[in-house]
Write a structure and sequence with these properties.
Distance between the termini: 42 Å
CATH topology: TIM Barrel
Oligomer: single chain
Keywords: Cytoplasm, Pentose shunt, Schiff base, Transferase
Low-confidence stretches: none
Mean pLDDT: 98
Family: Belongs to the transaldolase family. Type 3B subfamily.
Number of domains: 1
Subcellular location: Cytoplasm
Largest sheet: 8 strands, parallel, barrel
CATH superfamily: Aldolase class I
Protein name: Probable transaldolase
Bound molecules: erythose-4-phosphate
Order of helices and strands: EHEHHEHEHEHEHHEHEHH
Structural class: alpha/beta
Function: Transaldolase is important for the balance of metabolites in the pentose-phosphate pathway.
C-alpha cells in the first residue's frame, strides 16, 4: 500500500515528501478553502514539490459539462494532476469523457461497493471510499475496503482503491491488510504512525547507556 497525504497545506506536503514515503497528494474543496489561497496557484506549488505522484484536484461543478471543462483546465496545470469527481450520475459521465481523453480521475465520496464498481466501469483511475465518515454514522468503513477489494480482484479491475477519510493509525494498518492500494492520510496521522512508545524508550536507554559508558 502506498501513502498519499490528504491536505492542501504546502508545509505539510513538503514535510511528508522529505520523509521519502510520499506517493501523492489529495485535496478537496474544504481543504483548499482552509488554506485561503488561489486553487490553481496552490496546485502549481504542490506539483512543484510532488512532481511525479498523483495530485488530486476536485471539480466544483455538479453537471457533467461543467466538470469536464473544469477538469480539463485543472489537468492542464501539470501532467500528474488527477481530476477528482464526485460519485454521481453526472460525475460518471465526466469520468467516461476524462477516461477517453487519458485524463486520470479519482472518484470521491464513495460509500458503497456498488458505487466503486460503477466508478471503475466508467473508467476511474482511483476510487476513494471514506472510512471515517462511515464510522461516524455507525457503519464499519474498513469493511467497505474489504468488499471493494474483493469485487475488484474477482473481476480483474485495475482501478486503484484509495482509503480516504483516515482518522487514526488503525485505519491505515487495516486498510493495508484489506487490500487498499493507497491510503490518503492527514499529516497528524502520518506523525502518529511513526511513533511508538517502545521506540522512544529504546532511544532514551541507548543514549543514557552511551553517556554512562
Ligand atoms: C479524500 O480524498 C478526502 O479529501 C478526505 O479523505 C476526506 O476526509 P474527512 O472525512 O476527514 O474530511
Amino acid at each position: 500500500m502506498k501513502f498519499f497525504i490528504d491536505t492542501a497545506n504546502l508545509e505539510q506536503i513538503q514535510e511528508a515528501n522529505d520523509l521519502g514515503i510520499l506517493s501523492g497528494v489529495t485535496t478537496n474543496p474544504s481543504l483548499v478553502a482552509k488554506e485561503g489561497v488561489d486553487f490553481k496557484d496552490r496546485l502549481r506549488e504542490i506539483t512543484s514539490i510532488v512532481r511525479e505522484g498523483s495530485v488530486s484536484a476536485e471539480v466544483i461543478s455538479t453537471e457533467a459539462e461543467g466538470m469536464i471543462t473544469e477538469g480539463r483546465d485543472l489537468a492542464a496545470i501539470a501532467p500528474n494532476i488527477t481530476v477528482k469527481v464526485p460519485m454521481t450520475l453526472e460525475g460518471l459521465k465526466a469520468v467516461k469523457t476524462f477516461s477517453e481523453e487519458n485524463i486520470r480521475t479519482n472518484v470521491t465520496l464513495v460509500f458503497s461497493s456498488v458505487q466503486a464498481l460503477l466508478a471503475a466501469r466508467a473508467g476511474a483511475t482511483y476510487v476513494s471510499p471514506f472510512l471515517g465518515r462511515l464510522d461516524d454514522i455507525g457503519h464499519n468503513g474498513l469493511d467497505l475496503i474489504s468488499e471493494i477489494s474483493e469485487i475488484f480482484f474477482e473481476h480483474a479491475i485495475e482501478t486503484e482503491i484509495i482509503a480516504a477519510s483516515v482518522r487514526h493509525p488503525l485505519h491505515v494498518a487495516e486498510a493495508a491488510k484489506r487490500g487498499a492500494h493507497i491510503a490518503t492520510i492527514p499529516m497528524k496521522v502520518i506523525s502518529q504512525l511513526v511513533k511508538h512508545p517502545l521506540t522512544d524508550q529504546g532511544i532514551e536507554k541507548f543514549l543514557s547507556d552511551w553517556e554512562n559508558r
